[in-house]
Amino acid sequence: MHTIIGIPIAKGIAHGPVRIIHDTSMEAVERLGCNTVEEIQIFHDARNEAIGEIETIRLNTMKNIGEHESKIFEAHQSILEDPEMINQVEAYILEKACCAEWALTVVGNRIRAIFESMDNAYMKERAIDIKDITCRVVNLIMGHYSDVGSINEPYVLVGHDLTPSQTSTLETKYVKGIITEVGGKTAHSAIIATLLKIPYVVIEKGTTLLKDGDDVVFDGREGIVVVDPDQSCLDAYHAKEKQLVQEEEKYAGLKGKVCKTQDNMEVELIANISQIKDLDYIVKSDAKSVGLFRTEFIFMDQDRLPTEDEQYEIYKKITTAMSEGYVTIRTLDIGGDKESPLFNIPKEDNPFLGYRGIRLCLEEVEIFKTQLRAILRASAHGKIKIMFPMIATLTEIRETKSILDSCKKALDLEGNIYDKNIEVGIMIETPAAVVMADVFAKEVDFFSIGTNDLIQYTMAVDRSNLKISALYSQYDPAVLRNMKIIAEAANKENISVSICGEAAADIKLLPYWLGIGIHKLSMSVALIPEVKWTISQMTSTQGIEVVEALSKAGDVREVCNVTHHPPYTKKKVATKSIILGGYLLLDVL
Ligand code: PEP
Ligand code: MG
Q: Ligand 1 pocket test: which of 270, 333, 509 has the largest number of ligand atoms within 8 Å of its C-beta?
């Protein structure tokens, strides 16, 4: 039994055998002098297994996401059944007496090169599919797992990172925990794991430190992974699990009730959503509205841009499902850590400081207009608010609003119906927007604070860089002061202000959010019950006390001495704290 220290990401107790999911870019090594009959058989066995795996993924995608999205897997299956490809692999094995995985890699690369050299953009993109498919079969031959959709027994998933398509095929029945080598609380994989209640930690070099079949147990709140736990260790973790279940039961008692403090200050708790598949979770939750719909996921892992009608159907579906409240649709925020081959994003040294969010939309005006038209049309079916990401200047706000106006005019001429008074808001996630918040507040109907980005830009620390992750902290007084400036500017202009970054659900900061005048928090619905319960135990005066105490804090440690031991509790103050990844403080009393 030994332990590995990681960074806590999503809460819960995980226990099970490790399955390492390999990077799809791994490649075979040439082995010559092989028995060609055996190698051809190995190739066909793996090919058939891959077709079966893809069928499972296709069906899951169709059920969970949609028919359109599942089509790509049909194409993958037909490539594996293509006689031309099969003949070429067999011929190569026979000619060179090489191993099956090598022959497949060579033939796969050849076919890829043909697609890549084509002028047609659609055909060019097929090269990615060929790579995906050959890697899947090569991994099967080499006994590695390259995707998560096909494993149907309990396991703890260990990988370098998870792609959006991998996260969308996670089967909660089988995935007991997740360990990746990169990422953080704000990464897409973390957001999905939180929603699905899968315990998650990040461990640098996790795929090297762990191996297939290792028995591991961990608590996603602590980040410490125990390898080969003995019985007493397992008993301790099972006791913790029981305690977590009891806590969940306690929180569930407030379901359906208004979220308010003991002195009746109401707080609106609403939902973040990234994919249409999440809608089931949202509808069953306590959230009546959506505070952030990350629409870029409609554009990711696709082989073409979604049409206006396809987008309209998605927005309409969510809006109709949230008929008691409203849906805040954030326009395309591609770039940074969210890549898509559909856009011409140049390789950048600093993608987070580069061509992303509103900057891209203001260049790709036709794509932007298609989305705005779809959103406007969907607003005929329920209450929608439009939100623009990554705003840094007043010019961006004005240009964006003028494009929106031109879309409205075009819809008017076509006789289309939409909400003429649709609310327009911006995300506050750049320090420029903080400084200009008083000016911007006069231009828009609402602010929503994207703390995930605001922290990284305020602290000048890449939100996905583990090396400097201790600096990425919502407890930094610089971040907290920025939050106060934004809230004051919004409240002064009487416009709504909310938080939709992960910090919205930080239990330790709830008094501060209320104290600075933020009464609307948008988060993963999995986190709402605990946040609601915590607010129900507070008074609004406590929020004011915390704001007062924090106004004097000079660094993270001084902030945490207040947030983790607020003035209204009688607890002793920590004398020494350990900060892990900017999130966790282990207090040594
Ligand atoms: C944020 O930056 O806080 C946010 C909600 O947006 P995203 O995480 O999608 O960048
Ligand atoms: Mg953001």
A: 333
pTM: 0.81
CATH match for 36-142 among 2.60.120.10, 1.10.274.10, 1.20.272.10, 3.50.50.60: 1.10.274.10
Q: Report d(CA 58, CA 51) in Å as an integer.
A: 10
Query: Which long-range CB contacts under 8 A does 393-401 form with residues at least 24 apart?
Result: 393/432, 393/436, 394/436, 394/439, 394/440, 394/443, 396/358, 396/359, 396/362, 397/426, 397/440, 397/443, 397/444, 398/443, 399/362, 400/358, 400/361, 400/362, 401/443
- 396 C-beta closer than 6 A to ligand 1: no
Q: Is the C-beta atom of 296 inside 6 A of ligand 1?
A: no
Question: pLDDT of 515-538, one tens digit each?
Answer: 999 999 999 999 999 999 999 999
Query: How much is the pLDDT for 10?
Result: 93
503 CA closest ligand 1 atom index:
3
2-22+148-237 — its CATH code? 3.50.30.10
CB-side neighbour CA atoms (13 Å) of 497: 27
Neighbours of 512 (CB within 10 A): 25
Task: Output the pLDDT for position 344.
Answer: 75
456 CB under 6 A from ligand 1?
no
The two three-digit tokens of residue 498, written as one number: 């909310």
* pLDDT tens-digit series, residues 129-176: 787 788 889 888 887 766 666 677 899 999 988 766 567 677 888 999
User: How far away, in angstroms, is 117 Cα from ligand 1 center?
Assistant: 37
pLDDT digits (tens, 9 = 90+) for 189-228: 888 889 889 999 999 999 999 999 999 999 999 989 999 9
Q: Please check whether residue 5 is in contact with residue 224, taking contact to mean a CB–CB distance below 8 angstroms.
A: yes
DSSP-derived pairing of the beta strands 155-159 and 13-21: parallel
Q: Quick check: 63 pLDDT over 80?
A: no
Q: Which of 15, 76, 188, 519 is catalytic?
A: 188
Least confident of 160-164, 381-385, 495-499: 160-164
Dihedral angle of Cα 139, 142, 144, 147, to the nearest 10 degrees: 20
Q: Domain limits of the chain?
A: 2-22+148-237, 36-142, 295-424, 429-589
